[in-house]
Amino acid sequence: MKIVITGGQGFFATRFYEQYKDKYNITLLGRKELDITNREEVLKKIDNIRPDIVIHTAAIADTGLCEDNPEESYRVNVTGTVNVAEACKESLCKMVFLSTEQIFNGNEESGPYTEETIPNPNTVYGKHKLQAEKEISKIIDRLWIIRLTWLFGFPEYKKKVNANIVWNVTSVLLKNEKRYFPTNEYRGMTYVYELLDNFPRILELPYGIYHTGSENNLSTYDIALEVCRNMKLEEVAKQYILKDEEKYKHKARDIRISNGKLSKQGIIFSDTLQSIKKSIEDFNYNFKL
């Protein structure tokens, strides 16, 4: 199977390549190789490669940057995604669009949200990802929309690492710095390698929208403490991992999604606590003072 991945130097893409380079014929297209905002360039590149599947991960995912630069967010997150969908349609290939839980960050009702829940994003990033979902659904039928929770993992050689819960906590402890984590935020957090392990099965699913990743009912602050506990550093955790009780005080941020639809297809994710434990064991980040 021939696979193209946009956002080729990103957190997900570099790890996907390393894990599946001997199973699939994978082409990584980073910003140097492809400007997704250039429609003609995208059409030509995809037509030349003729992949079976395009996994579209390229995006501006920094929510603050999107808020400050809404036009650039639209250009990349909406127009760029539409360009990729049109190229997939023209080249008769399938498309996977990695979307986000953050399309629910303005919903008044509490999560976990299902695929049937009507999203109500209240940020530029969330609005643009949802708009991209709607636009490409009109263009291409052979499409999987994968709404992800917050992916986490550790830095690795020649692989990008994004801000994520386990590395944020680890960085705080390594630097002997203090950091506040919100007590009023609830979201799923998924070990990137559990997503990667499940991805071949996701590509066998019927086309459609799937909420994908670990479920979690603990606050971000409580999860940060759990990271420390699994590293055997619970004794020092409360010196550096501090409660942010002001953020989201008036309305909790609840962007939990339910992966019940995937579970019915036999694709099971461990919960966030289990996956954090697994990631720390995999990278041997267990310390004893």
Keywords:
289 residues, alpha/beta, Rossmann fold, six-stranded parallel sheet, 11 helices, 12 strands
Summarize the main sheet: 6 strands, parallel
The CATH level-2 architecture of the largest domain is identified as 3-Layer(aba) Sandwich
Estimate what percentage of residues fall within beta strands. Answer: 15-25%
CATH topology descriptor of the largest domain: Rossmann fold
Q: Helix-strand pattern, N to C?
A: EHEHEHHEHEEHEEEHEHHEEHH
Summing up helix and strand content along with how strands pair, one would put the structural category as: alpha/beta
- Basic shape: globular
Physical arrangement of strands within the biggest beta sheet: 2-1-3-4-5-10
Q: What's the structural domain tally?
A: 2
Which spans have pLDDT < 50 for at least 5 consecutive residues?
none
Mean pLDDT: 96
Helix content: 40-55%
The tally of beta strands, per DSSP, is 12
CATH fourth-tier homologous superfamily of the largest domain: NAD(P)-binding Rossmann-like Domain
Gyration radius, in Å: 19 Å
Distance between the termini: 48 Å
Could you explain the architecture of this structure?
The protein is an alpha/beta fold and 289 residues long. It has eleven helices and twelve strands. It has two domains: 2-148, 3-Layer(aba) Sandwich (Rossmann fold); 159-187 and 216-255 and 272-283. It has helices at residues 11-20, 39-49, 63-68, 70-91, 124-139, 165-175, 192-202, 220-230, 234-240, 260-264, 272-283; strands at 2-6, 25-29, 53-56, 94-100, 143-148, 150-152, 179-182, 185-186, 189-191, 208-212, 241-244, 253-254. Strands 2-1-3-4-5-10 form a six-stranded parallel beta sheet, sandwiched between helices. A two-stranded parallel ribbon has the order 6-9. It has a two-stranded parallel sheet with strand order 7-11. Helix 8 (220-230) runs parallel beside helix 11 (272-283).
